[in-house]
Design brief:
With 325 residues, the protein is an alpha+beta fold. The chain has 7 helices and 16 strands. The strands form 3 sheets. Strands 5, 6, 7, 8, 9, 10, 13, 14, 15 and 16 form a 10-stranded mixed β-sheet that branches.
Length: 325
């Protein structure tokens, strides 16, 4: 018999999620069985799977057989990332492109697993939100469960401000400032996740998606955009910009594949100075604004453009001057 005391790292968590974390190696069906049977007690009383745990609650567990750890977590090499902000409740890092935020879908580890290995003394580290593997920029991590729930509420209620920098092919029309087009997720024949535009009331379950766009800098053959999203759909920015006829440079799912290959090799590309390379997608979460979950202070963080992106911008042919009126 085990008796566990709830500390602030588990405060506010559902009972079933707490047990699944504590009883690693125990089948999920067995965890739910011991909850339903009343063998799990919270403060000496029966509790449901969705019971929220409070600070200093006592959880009593019956004897269970735990399978030995397979060691998968040990495959994540410890790694720190550039810190943009940190205190006792929140950690914000500059995530590089090419690194997933978490393991899964064939990946054994991501940013969060590497951080946990690098910080074994940390009692709690959880992702507040996510970025695509190919996207760089500001990534927020909670160091307390109370901070996690408060920040996730802000994201759900669209009380945060997140701005992306995206370099797209072609001259973006200045009048196109709002893209309000529904999106639908699907799997390719190879089992890869993709997203396409559709109608909001379509039978395939299209979900309304809104992206706001402004031109930060116009070039002869490209446009640098500031992009914000009012809805957080999978691949939303990538699909919306591509559907408008201006795919993101380097996007390997929805972009111009020939141009991407030429840039990755450093081949001649119209509008780009010879020899400049880009072997990643030019989408960067450059700014994030949120209310601090403990102090109530408004925090605004910025992540500088990665060197490869900044160097590419410096190599682009400027837009032709407007004729004098």
């Amino acid at each position: 018999m085990q008796r566990l005391r709830i500390d602030e790292s588990s405060e506010g968590q559902r009972l079933d999620n707490f047990l699944l974390k504590v009883l690693k190696g125990v089948p999920k069906t067995h965890v739910y069985r011991i909850i339903r049977s009343g063998e799990v007690r919270v403060n000496k009383g029966r509790a449901a799977a969705d019971t929220r745990l409070d600070l200093d609650d006592e959880v009593r567990l019956p004897p269970v057989v735990v399978k030995p750890d397979s060691g998968k977590a040990e495959t994540a090499p410890p790694r720190e990332f550039p810190v943009l902000f940190e205190d006792e409740a929140v950690l914000a890092i500059a995530k590089p492109a090419g690194v997933a935020v978490h393991g899964g879908s064939g990946l054994s580890f991501g940013v969060i697993e590497q951080l946990r290995r690098a910080r074994p003394q940390a009692r709690f580290l959880e992702l507040v939100h996510r970025l695509d593997k190919e996207t760089s920029g500001v990534l927020l991590i909670a160091k307390k469960r109370s901070a996690l729930t408060a920040l996730q509420d802000q994201f759900r209620q669209r009380q945060t401000g997140k701005t992306y920098a995206a370099l797209v092919i072609g001259r973006w029309p200045a009048k196109l400032k709002v893209i309000d087009v529904a999106l639908h997720k699907y799997l390719t024949a190879e089992g890869e996740r993709r997203v396409r535009t559709t109608e909001a009331d379509a039978e395939d379950g299209g979900r309304r998606s809104i992206t706001l766009v402004s031109v930060a800098q116009a070039y002869a053959q490209f446009s640098l955009l500031d992009v914000t999203i009012k809805t957080g759909r999978t691949h939303q920015i990538r699909v919306h910009l591509a559907s408008a006829g201006h795919p993101i440079v380097g996007d390997d799912k929805y972009g111009d594949f020939d141009l991407n290959k030429a840039l990755a090799r450093g081949d001649a590309v119209r509008g780009v100075a010879k020899g400049h390379k880009l072997d990643r997608m030019f989408l960067h979460a450059r700014r994030l604004r949120f209310t601090h979950p403990t102090t109530g202070e408004e925090i605004e963080l910025a992540a500088e453009l990665p060197a490869q992106c900044a160097e590419l911008l410096s190599s682009l042919e400027p837009a032709p001057a407007r004729p004098a009126s």
